[in-house]
Design goal:
This protein is α+β, with helices and mostly antiparallel strands and 225 residues long. It is built from eight helices and eight strands. It has one domain: Homing endonucleases (Endonuclease I-creI). Strands 1-2-4-3 form a four-stranded antiparallel sheet. Strands 5-6-8-7 form a four-stranded antiparallel sheet.
Length: 225
């Protein structure tokens, strides 16, 4: 699917149960903010940013160079492009908080994603691209998939979604990383299978970050030898 087609089928109600909106709100929860007057989502992938903007009806994408901490260890940083999609509107922010339990500014979140129960793959893909990591683990020769976020409630919610997803994907317990954030990982024996399921059908839907999918595919190739 071309970038021009992404967002074309999304309903006017951006909180409706729809695969494109499940992906969008997963991205917002994983690496975005809900303020009193706007909803923002950040990504290091320009193509993904354009697609998210199309889904949400945002008029522009802002770009800057940022320094980010490594997910598991804040002592390690890296410089990368950061693209921000912003949808302005107090009504949307209020509705997102009420319907999905997303935190507004410093308020705690409750995270209710039941509206996207029929689109769990797209929701989890958005969450994975927002606050997940994918790598090749040379120590075990397997794909590594984990989720890391400062909000323990969100991490526990994601863990529940992963364990209820179609592929059998056992996980470890939620733990605190040296960065002070919270994380869990998909078991090594299941991570590759879960990653393949996560990106199944993306060629047709366009609901993915190209850089993240490339990383998964390279990790799968190395794991398969």
């Amino acid at each position: 699917m071309s970038d021009a087609e992404v967002g074309a089928s999304a309903p006017d109600d951006v909180l409706a149960s729809h695969p494109e909106l499940a992906y969008f709100w997963g991205r917002v929860a994983g690496n975005g903010d809900v303020t009193q007057n706007a909803v923002e989502v950040r990504t290091s992938d320009e193509t993904a940013a354009r697609r998210l903007a199309a889904i949400a009806g945002a008029e522009r994408v802002d770009h800057r160079i940022s320094e980010r901490d490594y997910a598991h260890d804040t002592a390690v940083t890296r410089t990368e492009d950061e693209f921000t999609v912003q949808v302005v509107g107090r009504t949307l922010a209020d509705r997102a908080s009420a319907a999905l339990g997303l935190p507004v500014e410093d308020q705690p979140g409750g995270y209710r994603f039941g509206a996207f129960a029929d689109h769990d793959r797209q929701l989890l893909r958005g969450l994975s691209e927002g606050c997940g990591t994918i790598c090749f683990k040379s120590s075990s020769g397997t794909v590594g998939i984990s989720f890391v976020h400062e909000d323990r409630t969100l991490v526990e919610t994601i863990r529940g979604l992963v364990e209820r997803a179609d592929p059998d994907a056992p996980t470890g317990e939620v733990a605190e990383a040296s960065s002070g954030r919270y994380w869990f990982g998909v078991d090594d024996d299941a991570a590759g299978r879960f990653g393949e399921w996560l990106y199944e059908g993306t060629e047709d839907s366009g609901l993915f970050s190209p850089s993240r999918r490339r990383k998964l595919r390279k990790s799968l190739e190395r794991a398969e030898g």
